[in-house]
Specification:
With 158 residues, the chain is mostly helical. The protein contains five helices and no strands. The mean pLDDT is 93.
Length: 158
């Protein structure tokens, strides 16, 4: 076993926090932009935002996986941390929830949105309903992410 180094721990924590900022911040910006466009934009602009988000899916995937990998590395590396700690379990449960939401709700809806928009156009009621559905699901997902950040800060059970 390697000796504990606070420099290694701090570097892992920095990577973890920066990835969380990237993931959560990007999602919050999408919510902000989507809300503004739904109130003051056109159907085409809102559909364009949907395409932009779909095109940037790799950003969300990389940042979320980096959060998970660096978080697991922190728990494995740091003495005194364990996967049975309440706050770590809550973080993992929250991560699993956002993974399920993204892969089994948002992604299929986005795929249906792209197919429907190609046939009916971005202003069709079906496309606009799918966009509204994605933003609603995403809002719930963002709330979960904010709660996870709160759990990481306040560390219940620690």
């Amino acid at each position: 076993m390697l000796a504990f180094s606070s420099d290694v721990y701090d570097t892992l924590k920095l990577v973890h926090v920066l990835a969380a900022i990237a993931w959560l911040g990007s999602g919050l910006f999408v919510q902000y932009r989507g809300t503004r466009l739904s109130r003051h934009g056109t159907a085409e602009q809102l559909a364009g935002l949907g395409r932009d988000v779909a095109d940037s899916a790799v950003w969300f995937i990389v940042s979320s996986v980096t959060v998970l990998v660096s978080g697991v590395a922190l728990v494995l590396y740091a003495p005194g941390l364990g996967f049975t700690d309440t706050w770590i379990l809550l973080g993992l449960i929250g991560y699993a929830a956002t993974f399920v939401t993204g892969n089994f709700m948002i992604r299929p809806t986005a795929e249906k949105l792209a197919a429907t928009a190609a046939v009916e156009g971005p202003a069709s009621p079906s496309v606009q309903a799918l966009i509204a559905r994605i933003f609603m699901i995403s809002r719930v997902d963002q709330v979960v992410l904010v709660l996870i950040v709160g759990v990481m800060v306040f560390r219940p059970g620690a």
